[in-house]
Specification:
Among the domains are: 94 residues, Ribosomal Protein L25, Chain P (Beta Barrel); 81 residues, RNA Polymerase Alpha Subunit, Chain A, domain 2, CATH 2.170.120.20. It is 36% helix and 33% strand. The protein has 4 helices and 13 strands. The strands form 3 sheets. Strands 1-3-2-6-5-4 form a 6-stranded mixed barrel. 17% of the residues are buried.
Length: 253
Amino acid sequence: MEIYELAVEDRASRGKGANRQLRLDGRVPAVVYRSGRDAVSLSLSITDFVNAMKGTLGRNTTFRLKGGEADGRLVMTREIQKSAVYRDLLHIDFYELAAGERIIVRVPITLVGVAPGIAMGGMLRRVVRDIEVSCLPDAIPEAIEVDVSELELGQAIAVRDVEAPEGAEIVFRNDYAVATVFIPRGIVEEVEEDEEGEEGEEGEEGEEGEEGEEGEKPAAEGEKKGGEKKGGERKGGERKGEKGRKGEKGRKE
């Protein structure tokens, strides 16, 4: 990330009145501090500061101060105070960075590529927008690219799968998801309905088969009873025939 040069002046007068006058003159009060060193009060051009912040979208902007007691110091914005209504700059806190000392900053995530899961009806969701990395002040990455071109439906990319830029080390939770292709609720409901429909068809076919078998059994039983009845009628007819023949024989005698 680029280091911007920022012209500053020492600030002798303090208090609300002095700070208000600075803002009327197009300048903003600021302070530079670091553990083990005395804080330095200074002022700087509002226009110069705003233009520099636009180039980095206000993230992890580092400055090389020029002028006054803080000349040559490498600093990073730590806090920016603005008015609640008009959002005018009120005060800036700079933290001094030591040469060769690694710092921890939050770096934005940029998703690149097209996930195949989207073509299957899924939706890409960015779970985190930035992650913490450890690096030197002059090696702060502007963004970390995450390739999602291999994400299928229901899959996710975790922090452990993200490759850190050269000179930086990711210090974020490695099991945390960065991006995922999730299944929308509508698709889940359609899948469940299809499965229920298939189960219903299988159940109907099974019931029809059982009903057919049950229908065949009564029919077979009916045929059996009918056969027995007819057999009884035949036996009855035979007995009547025998009685008739005996009667005729008696009359003849």
